[in-house]
Amino acid sequence: MTQSPDLVLSERHGAVLLLTLNRPDRLNAWTLALEEQYFALLDAAEDDPEVRVVVVTGAGRGFCAGADLEDLSQLGTVDPDTIARARKRPRERPLAFRKPLIAAVNGPVAGLGLVQALYCDLRFTTPVAKFTTAFVRRGLVAEYGIAWLLPRLVGHSRALDLLLSGRVVLGAEALAMGLADRVVAADELLPVTLAYAADLAENCSPRSMALMKSQVFQAMDSDLPTAITLANQLMDESFRHPDSAEGVHSYLERRPPRFEPLGAA
Fold it and tell me: What SUPFAM superfamilies does this protein map onto (predicted)?
């Protein structure tokens, strides 16, 4: 597959990597080529010890309008095995990303674009950003695990509301129901998101963040005793890890911590 070099822009802000979906003329609609480049950049960021947090946003006035309808209209005529072979990584690849992944939802986000935003750990947005599942209005179903993920974020009936109606939710309502984690003015979205990401990168243990992401994900399908057993095991290991001593010493010495970078996946 020929890959355009500018479908996803990559920009370093210290230990924070900013990735920008870059098809503004199509509201950053999702294509296999864009997916391939985005996931390749996530792979590279995962193995780069200098990158501790990733922020993803959209160029222009939208985050991602979902699957490109021109691509979507051709899917019915293409063999599914051919599509699967063209996809080098599973579409849920961001869920396995060990470092914090934060979406700065700057505008419309729909369908597959919403799924990708929900795959991120946190979503910062603006009051006028538009969220919609959209699938039902395209004759589709709840795709790519959103039927599993959405109820865990917003609750059973709210998830069904969003899926069955395909209605548009603005930023304030998205925050109230749990689709978004913070709403800020449009001109402050990237500065606020990057500042939050920089705080994680500078003051939080990469190892601890990776382990806690894994704990939370596993706990979604386990019981409390299982979660406690795992936490006790990981806590014992953490006490013996250099990051634990560094966290205590940096606090007592009133200085920024110097935590070890996360090793390659």
Answer: ClpP/crotonase (SSF52096)
Identify whether 257 is part of a domain.
no
Domain contains 3: no
| Contact residues for 108 (Cβ-Cβ < 8 A; gap 6+) | 27, 61, 62, 63, 65, 129, 130, 132
SS3 105: strand
Residue 262 lies in a domain: no
Q: Which residue has the higher pLDDT, 18 or 90?
A: 18
Whether residue 169 is contained in a domain is answered as: yes
Domain count, the chain: 2
On the 0-12 / 13-18 / 19+ scale of CB atoms within 10 A, 81 is exposed
Which region among 85-99, 124-138, 217-231, 244-258 has the lowest average model confidence (pLDDT)? 85-99
Any long-range contacts for 48-52 (C-beta under 8 Å, 24+ apart)? 48/17, 49/261, 49/262, 49/263, 49/264, 50/15, 50/261, 51/12, 51/15, 51/16, 51/17, 51/99, 52/15, 52/16, 52/99, 52/100, 52/200, 52/201, 52/206, 52/261, 52/262
Q: Which two tokens stand for residue 159?
A: 């998830």
| pLDDT the model gives residue 5 | 62
Q: Quick one: 44 and 132 in the same domain?
A: yes
Same domain, 141 and 19: yes
